[in-house]
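Subject: two folds for Thursday's group meeting

Dear M.,

Sorry for the delay on this. The cluster queue was jammed most of the week, so I only got both jobs back this morning. I'm pasting them in the order they finished. Each block is the input sequence followed by the predicted structure tokens. Could you check whether the formatting survives your parser before we put anything on slides? The first protein is the one we discussed after the seminar.
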Amino acid sequence: MAKTAKPYFGDVAEMTYLQWLRRYVELTIGEGNSTADTAGVLGPDSPWLADTWRDRFEQMLQRAEARLHPKDFGPIETVFTDPALLEKPTEAIAALLARYPDADTVQLHPADVPFFVTLCKTLGKPVNFVPVIDKDVRRWWRSDSLWQAHDARYDADQVCIIPGPAAVAGITRLDEPVGELLDRFEQAAIDEVLAADGKSGTSRRAGWAAPTPPDPWPSCSTRPTCCGPAAPRSIPCTGSPTQAIGRYTTDPKTPVPHTLPPDPGSRSTGKTWR
């Protein structure tokens, strides 16, 4: 895991507040040379790939202030009143250390360990590290991991990719034209079918039959169970018998089993069909 794009954060309970903050910046920002698609979204000078990563850093700074301040209770004045300071995380940590030198020696309070895990679960862009080795370790590692495949900071062995082993095995050339790639895919599919020694037969598509035209106006005389016992029907039919027959049968002797919708422009003849 340490050699992947989502390494383990480390044993937080054993860290000092200074180590805790520096480790977070090291993993989320690194050298600030990310080529991810979210780079620069917060501004050309922002090193953060997401505002939620920056917000978590701010909460960590304020948590450290609360633990290191000499007051045991009540509100304290924060050093980080200027949001612009958060865009320079190294300077922000230096400001904390200048105000509270003990940050370099005081280990995290036991309550701050679950606080950090909960902070990493907050809504927004998932953290790009595994904060704790627990039952959800696979979820920690897999969450939001595909964007790193497009970041030049990581090599191929460090990132997750969508294609499986079989698909990756088909990648043989750099910048191969899409048309040639699809030609290879088609030929491979043909070769696989021929190698299977299949038998000729009618395909499901070729054997498909046109459906029988539906009954547009179901009636009780043709469906005696829908409304009780069947009864003689006398419904005016619009259009001529020839029009009616021509739509659903080629045999003039075959009775039309239902009333048909009118043809455009036709008028009712007043005739009755049974």
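Second protein, same layout:
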Amino acid sequence: MATENANPALSKSGILTDENGVRKIPASVRADGSVRKEIRIKPGYRPPEDAEVYRNRKAESWKSRGTGGVPGADPAEYQKAKEKAPTNRDVDKSARKREAKKKAAEAVVQEEPEPAVEPEVEKAKKARNLAKKLRQARDLSEKKAKGNALLPEQIEKVIKINELTRQLDALGFNADGEKKESGEKTGSSHEQAEEQTGGQDVKKTKEEDT
């Protein structure tokens, strides 16, 4: 029987290779005192633990580029320059400061007051809206005068003819939503007649409903 090498090669997986090239896992003693028998490894078998990791030299040299400094330069000077160079943390801090300044500037722009609306413009806008409602109410009043039946919400609009006219007059506008000339009388006889007619129609409609 061949004698084993005094210093057999031991792999990472615990396999021994003797001087004859025979690979085996040597016998060992378990915790309970029993003996674990020697196991021979089949030729050609290599456990994953013993597989060599492939290394690409070009890739490794590319990863380590720039770490060795400038060829021919003083290592001490290179180290000083490296220490003075801004780190990622410094760059992130500067970026955060710039972002904060940008947001503060945007907030100032947004807080600027909007230009105030001129009172006359606001009056004219309100008068146009009132004149539109007044025209609709008068149209409904005319339909009622012709014998057409009105819905409850339409009757409510007719009732507001006098109120709409007073609101327009208070703003200084006529029933058409146009600004009155100075000296123009409040409400024409035609408008007053329509208002009276509208009020009578509404009163008559309510009496018929009861």
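Two things I noticed about the second structure. Residues 119-209 form one domain. Residues 1-7, 186-197 have pLDDT under 50 and may be disordered.

Cheers,
T.
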